[in-house]
Write a structure and sequence with these properties.
Pfam families: F-box-like (PF12937), FBA_3 (PF08268). InterPro entries: F-box-assoc_dom_typ3 (IPR013187), F-box-assoc_interact_dom (IPR017451), F-box-like_dom_sf (IPR036047), F-box_dom (IPR001810), Kelch-typ_b-propeller (IPR015915), SCF_F-box_component (IPR050796). The chain is mainly beta and 366 residues long. The protein has six helices and 28 strands. The two termini are 39 Å apart.
């Protein structure tokens, strides 16, 4: 009887399960695994993960939107100091900080698994990093993705260092890196000096926001290996500017001193259209009445966009409310204590992650 249940009915039953029980159900058979994976990514809201910018033997903190509680997860299984880069399915892409040359790793903070990715073909320092998901978790527990690395500094043949004008890609399906082409040197310089690690993938293009004032957006078309540059609205007046992917579309958030924070969406002809403003009262609460946006960070994915600063400050959330057919603003209190234990505040990197309690075969391949 269970094997013949319609997919939607089975998904409805699974929606009542705890994350632990849902992980067990995924291991029963291929049909249950597909249904439970679909439910985990589509029906359950993503958790906000707060990781320290640099850590070794510390903790990360996770906010579960279903019960509106913060949880503390130990990172003592991570053998080296790391800096979080990006979510990859139910995993986290990490950048070890014990070496100037880039090497990447992945981990699952819920199953306490960790693994280094293979070394790059070209030794680079401080390149831009982009992530593209290829598929959802399949019936064998394998999640496929690609990591793009562009620019950075490398050793020059004549000695010293020079900007590296190449793009290299890691494919999890074959667990190898490959140099796929060159790039304009001026783009390599800007990606190395002015671009943070955060990237956004949308409609076949990886985008990075340059941190130099005035802000601009750099895009890499994956299918053609071509680069392009986009302007940013009010680029010379914004105190912060960040890119997110919202329901498949490239979305830009920015705020100016003493003014509003606005949200734009990229449309046809690479034109930005303003679609929303942060409500004034919530904006003032988020800024502590100071009216300064310059330390604001942002993360977003399908159905949710979050503005944050540090662990103890609150999170400003713009979220899709499906039963109302619109997006609404919410407030999440910062993580100041857990089970009565006061926590020290620190700078964080925020990620949106769907917890995966199943052991990853990718992490087991090490």
């Amino acid at each position: 009887m269970w094997s013949s249940l319609p997919f939607d009915l089975l998904a409805n039953i699974f929606s009542f399960l705890s994350p632990e029980s849902l992980a067990c159900a995924k291991s029963a058979c291929r049909n249950w695994h597909e249904c439970a994976s679909h439910l985990a990514t589509r029906c359950r809201p993503a958790w906000f993960m707060a990781l320290p910018n640099r850590s070794r033997g510390l903790f990360c903190y996770a906010h579960n939107p279903s019960d509106n509680n913060w949880y503390m997860l130990s990172l003592d299984f991570v053998p080296i100091p790391i800096r979080p880069v990006s979510p990859v399915g139910g995993l986290i892409l990490l950048r070890p900080t014990n070496s100037t040359a880039l090497q990447l790793a992945i981990c699952n903070p819920f199953t306490r698994q960790f693994r280094h990715l293979p070394l790059l073909n070209v030794t680079r320092t401080n390149p831009a990093i982009g992530v593209m998901e290829i598929s959802s978790v399949n019936q064998f527990g394998k999640f496929n993705f690609m990591v793009y690395v562009a620019g950075g500094m490398s050793d020059a043949p004549s000695g010293g260092a020079s900007y590296e004008p190449t793009v290299e890609v890691y494919d999890s399906r074959c667990d190898t890196w490959k140099v796929i082409g060159s790039m304009p040197v001026e783009f390599a310089v800007r990606l190395t000096v002015w671009t943070p690690n955060e990237s956004v993938y949308s409609n076949g293009v990886l985008y990075w926001m340059t941190s130099a004032r005035a802000y601009s957006v750099m895009g890499f078309e994956i299918g053609t290996n071509k680069w392009r540059e986009l302007n940013v609205p009010m680029a010379d007046r914004l105190e912060f500017a960040a890119l997110v992917q919202r329901n498949g579309k490239l979305t830009l958030l920015g705020g100016k001193c003493g003014g509003d924070a606005c949200i734009w969406e990229l449309g046809e002809g690479d034109l930005w259209c303003m679609i929303e403003k942060v409500p004034f009262e919530l904006g003032m609460r988020f800024l502590g009445g100071k009216g300064c946006w310059d330390s604001t960070k942002c993360v977003g994915t399908n159905g949710i966009v979050c503005l944050y600063k540090d662990l103890g400050s609150g999170i400003l959330v713009w979220r899709e409310v499906s039963d109302k057919g619109r997006w609404e603003w919410f407030w999440i209190d910062g993580c100041c204590s857990i089970r009565g234990q006061q926590l020290q505040n620190f700078q964080i990197k925020g990620l949106l992650l769907h917890p995966n309690l199943a052991h990853s075969s990718l992490l087991n391949d090490a």
